[in-house]
From TrEMBL, chain A:
Alphabetical list of InterPro entries matching this protein: GcvT, GcvT/YgfZ/DmdA, GcvT/YgfZ_C, GcvT_C, GCVT_N, TrmE/GcvT-like
GO BP, one annotated term: glycine catabolic process
Span of domain Aminomethyltransferase C-terminal: 291-371
Gene: gcvT
Pfam families, A to Z: GCV_T, GCV_T_C
Lineage: Bacteria, Pseudomonadati, Pseudomonadota, Alphaproteobacteria, Acetobacterales
Keywords: Aminotransferase, Transferase
Protein family: Belongs to the GcvT family.
GO-annotated molecular function: aminomethyltransferase activity; transaminase activity
Catalytic activity: N(6)-[(R)-S(8)-aminomethyldihydrolipoyl]-L-lysyl-[protein] + (6S)-5,6,7,8-tetrahydrofolate = N(6)-[(R)-dihydrolipoyl]-L-lysyl-[protein] + (6R)-5,10-methylene-5,6,7,8-tetrahydrofolate + NH4(+)
Keyword presence, Glycosyltransferase: no
Gene Ontology terms: cellular component: glycine cleavage complex
Record protein name field: aminomethyltransferase
Species this protein is from: Acetobacter malorum
TrEMBL record, chain B:
Annotated SUPFAM superfamilies: Single hybrid motif (SSF51230)
Gene: gcvH
Origin superkingdom: Bacteria
UniProt protein name: Glycine cleavage system H protein
GO CC annotations on file: cytosol; glycine cleavage complex
Matching Pfam families: GCV_H (PF01597)
Statement: the UniProt record of this protein carries the keyword Iron-sulfur: no
Length: 377, 121
């Protein structure tokens, strides 16, 4: 796609003013990094607070045609393995759209707000997800919130920075969602994120986005952070990137996401199964899987990146799987990666081998996350 | 002229039959802070266009290609501990390999500083 056909978020002008290195991402012109670069931006988020523009992501309001919130929750449970019915008003949780084979069509956040469910979906999957919702949930209204931007404010200073404009956010806990007025903008704020740090995601009208972003950036602790650091932060936090670590060929159990499938949806639960691929996924929960997503710490300084083959031995005789994400972790100060390995090798501390430019690089299976999460529980 | 530039954003400083090779300031800015540099071993004979080193940022790995035919003589020993030296001083202390030219006539196809400045403008 050429530069002039790329979509712009409401913060495009701000990115350009701030010296953002704009790159194509899922059809949008998005900032990869600003003048300080990925390493410095990454560290700034872990030490202070970073403001990310994630307006390219899809925001969808789902309502039952009956108007009843519980009916909308029951409807969405036909497409995802999480317990949505028990999700309390003002709370959010992580789940996946699955296919008939138990593979993952996309991963998403779902919030219950009154009689509506608010979904945040990946930019690259937006069109397919919306069509999927419309096709499968005829009993629901699927409203795409095209005129809303999405900001993420992440890091140990995020609470103070946002509370300066909206003191009420101090009372929110991890995965709480609230309607909050920020400088006159009607925001929907969740205490969540994609960095492993405490922080917030702020959905707001597009017309208010630039003004609110600038207000946040007036605070000395807050800097703009690009997608490059967003990727290294989420990798250190052990979080999946759709299209790399999870896709239509990986199930939530293989991807070590079974924590996101509540008891009520498992075998013997009150609303067992009833989502695409439930037969596969529920069997895997009980009987196990042949491969698992794990964290990997490669020896030495060379980053081992997505696609690198993994083996049990330095002769490359016993293949185990492959790396799905890998980079240099600025906080870990060493290469970090995640990938899939045969289950017998998935236990933390297991030594394995990655192939890098034809050479064997020893790596150790590592518990995820690499950097302890600092959510405000 | 002793200083040459390539379309792949490398520089060569030629002294007799050998040359020091690195990446340009422009390339260093594009790549961002480097976290790892790996070079081919001394004694490796390569043709123009073959990889002689890999430089890695947080985000991506990039090959450094031999600008002309030759042999790797040496690499910058300081880069294993401090790869960011390439980012901070790419055309000085951040040099990457020393290289013996086996066919100096090939230098004629490379750019001088003015041509390179025009190339990246």
């Amino acid at each position: 796609m050429s530069a002039d056909t790329l979509l712009h978020t409401p913060l495009f002008t701000l990115h350009e003013e701030a010296g953002g290195k704009m790159v194509p991402f899922a059809g949008y012109a998005m900032p990869l990094n600003y003048a300080d670069g990925i390493m410095a931006e990454h560290r700034h988020v872990r030490e202070h607070a970073g403001l990310f523009d994630v307006s390219h992501m899809g925001q969808v309001r789902l309502r039952a045609r009956s108007g009843d919130g519980e009916a909308a929750a029951h409807a969405l449970e036909r497409l995802v393995p999480a317990d949505i019915v028990a999700l309390k008003n003002g709370r959010q949780r992580y789940t996946q759209f699955t296919n008939e084979k138990g593979g993952i069509l996309d991963d998403l956040m779902v919030a219950r707000m009154g009689e509506s469910l608010l979904l945040v979906i990946n930019a690259a999957c937006k069109d397919a997800d919306i069509a999927h919702l419309q096709d499968e949930l005829a009993d629901c209204l699927v409203e795409v919130l095209e005129d809303r931007a999405l900001l993420a404010l992440q890091g140990p200073a995020a609470e103070d920075a946002l509370a300066a404009l909206a003191p009420a956010v101090r009372d929110m806990k991890f995965m709480d969602v609230r309607d909050v007025d920020v400088d006159g903008a009607l925001c929907i704020i969740s205490r969540s994120g994609y960095t492993g740090e405490d922080g917030f995601e702020i959905s707001l009208p597009a017309m208010d986005a630039s003004r609110v972003a600038r207000k946040l950036l007036e605070q000395p602790a807050v800097k703009l952070i690009g997608l490059g650091a967003r990727d290294s932060l989420r990798l250190e936090a052990g979080m999946c990137l759709y299209g790399s670590d999870i896709d239509e060929t990986t199930t939530p159990v293989e991807a070590a996401l079974e924590w996101s499938i509540q008891k009520s949806r498992r075998r013997g639960g009150a609303r067992e199964g009833g989502f695409p691929g439930a037969d596969v996924i529920l069997a895997q929960l009980e009987e196990g899987v042949s491969r698992r997503r794990v964290g990997l710490l490669p020896e030495g300084r060379a980053p081992v990146r997505g696609g690198a083959p993994l083996y049990a031995d330095v002769e490359f005789a016993t293949p185990l799987g492959k790396v799905t994400s890998g980079a240099f972790g600025p906080t870990v100060e060493a290469p970090v990666a995640m990938g899939y390995v045969a289950t017998d090798y998935a236990t933390p501390q297991t030594p394995i081998v990655a192939e890098l430019r034809g050479r064997a690089v020893p790596a150790t299976v590592h518990v995820l996350p690499f950097v302890p999460a600092r959510f405000k529980r | 002229m002793t200083l040459y530039f390539t379309k792949d954003h490398e520089w060569l400083r030629v002294e007799g039959e050998s040359a020091t090779v690195g990446i340009t300031k422009h390339a260093a800015e594009e790549l961002g802070e480097l976290v790892f540099v790996e070079t081919r071993d001394a004694g490796t004979v390569v043709q123009a266009g073959e990889s002689i080193a890999v430089v890695e940022s947080v985000k991506a790995a990039s090959d450094i290609y031999a600008p002309v035919d030759g042999e790797v003589l040496d690499n910058n020993p300081q880069l294993s501990d401090d790869p960011a030296r390439v980012s901070s001083d790419p055309e000085g202390e951040g040099w990457i390999v020393k290289f013996r030219l086996s066919n100096p006539d090939q230098l004629a196809s490379l750019m001088d500083a003015d041509a390179y400045a025009a190339f990246i403008a």
